[in-house]
Predict the structure.
Amino acid sequence: MQSKQLLLLCSLLPLIQAQETVLGVYIYHRHGDRTTKAYTPTSLTDLGYDQVYSSGDFYRTRYVNGNESTAIYNISPNIVKLSQLNVEAPVDNVLQNSAQGFLQGLYPPVGTALASQTLANGSTVSSPLNGYQLIPVNAVSTAATTSSENSAWLQGSSGCNNAIISSNNYFYSDEYMTTLNETAAFYQSVLPVINTTFTSKTDTFKNAYSIYDYVHVATIHNKTIPSSSLLTTETLFQLQTLADKHEFNLAYNSSDPIRAIAGSTLAAQILSQLNTTITGKSKQQIAVQFGVYSSFLSFFGLAQLLPLSDNFTGVVDYASSMTFELVTNATVSNVSYPTADEISVRFLFSNGTAAANPLTEYPLFGQSSTVISWPTFVSEMNKFAIGDQASWCAACGNTTGTCAASSTSSSSSSSSTGAAGASSGSGGMSRAVAGVIGAMVTLAVILGLEALVMLLGGFRLISKKRLAGAGAATGNGAAGVKA
């Protein structure tokens, strides 16, 4: 009997050895519930604070506390090690405060027993606020001076000339003009609800997101709403669907990839951070960036996620997050770290705070598996990532300001970088990532990606989905960057 048990144990040994290990994660996160953009400055609400805190607590349970199979290798389970984290948010009170709220859930107060120290004179000092842990949020400067959450139209914040032109082209497309005319009567029908802020001239599809945001915030926070009887379930759904259509077309168009500049730069950031985790052998395991919903939409289009769910074709909910896990089945220890070929990437998305909405796996780039090898991930992301200043300036057609120095030197290589409006058809936009992630699958990865973040850091987002196929591959979309 014992020999049979031993044989069974031996047969299971390869399975035990092959247990997956999470080496690190990159989380891109939207802010929580906020006040309307109609009245600036916008601010994070208590509900929004709770949403991002709950999300942080969810990711703590998944990655940090050490009790789950998904816990990150070698992560500090209770007292934060700042060297293991890289947290960023644009210079914006809603996004910065959302990041802080998230971190309070990720690494909550540890109590005076753990958060105290004995001084040389023998006295003991306890940390304030029951061991509240101070975690810095790195400020990502935007190209524009406008606070992102206070702007209804944020593509200008990108500073990318060609992306702004591409976005504006949507307003001249047949699709836009048809929708504008067909919805005129619908928008006028809700004017009594919003006439303290919008006029009959501004109450049109052109302001679809601003109108939806104003009504959406009111339905969450206002006890009374003028002419509220007009806001039937069907009307609210229509307002949201039209806002989704408007914003998706501003964020992505398959025939004009520069419109998705937010997704291109985000892709470079993701590659850079995950490569840092690999080359550093998981010394920095968690990266979190708070940003705007347009970056989600742009990336969804570039990563070929649109056919998989309506979640990918409309404005994502408050506190939504997408996660990139670095995983391996190889042995990981202080003396043994997997090679690049032994590492894979898993993509997951939660529409709304992950504490209340399933964090679901999806396959990237039209692949069949939700887990793809790191070399394949690098190769596919490399097709659209833009991660250094010279490439960004060339793609955007910018020649002044921070791009002045690189405009001359980049002109000779512009043919390889690609003109701003260049396209290789749907899903195949191949824009150079000059000086970034080294050649192809070899992963001579990303050296200079972070300079661009300082240019583009202020992307944004908001709640929901719908509108499957809302012009994903047609017309002259537009890359509206909103929060």
